[in-house]
Amino acid sequence: MMKKIFAVLMITGMGLGLAACETAEGFGEDVEDAGEAIQESAQ
């Protein structure tokens, strides 16, 4: 029973991890855009 619960949790965790990658990539792009804007305003 514990093995089944652990397997379901692992699969769910992997699915959430894959979904978070897309979110993290978008967040990274936003931070990069903000950094470029700061650099341009500082010049």
TrEMBL record:
It holds the Pfam family Entericidin. The keyword Magnesium does not apply. Residues 1-19 form the signal peptide. InterPro entries: Entericidin. Coiled coil: none annotated. Keywords: Cell membrane, Lipoprotein, Membrane, Palmitate, Signal. The keyword Lipoprotein applies. Belongs to the EcnA/EcnB lipoprotein family. This is Entericidin A/B family lipoprotein. The lineage of its organism: Bacteria, Pseudomonadati, Pseudomonadota, Alphaproteobacteria, Rhodospirillales.
